[in-house]
Amino acid sequence: MNDLPSDLPRLRTLETYLTYSLRRVRERIAAVERREAEQRRGEQARPPAPDWLLEQGLNRDALPITVHVGGCHMAGKRHKGVTRATALRALAEGVPACTHCRPDTELGILD
Question: Is the model's pLDDT at 66 over the cut of 60?
Fold first, then answer.
């Protein structure tokens, strides 16, 4: 059983429609490939995660509330990466260490 029309005008219409559809599919493939390539470039260009984090208080002027190891899942949204020396200084000044990632142990302050 043949599912294609038998007359030339309808075959030409079908050909036009399929050509148009194929072009749209190819354009979508190209767009997805560009987006995936851009995402890969972004992931490769991402700077490394900081080794130490200071979790900030609710306002900009508040003192830090917790010291974390970089990448700690308990660090809140208001944190910034700091150097080892800054993390040590914050712990020495009384900023509490995260109880989950234990930066004080990682820094060699506690065993």
Answer: yes
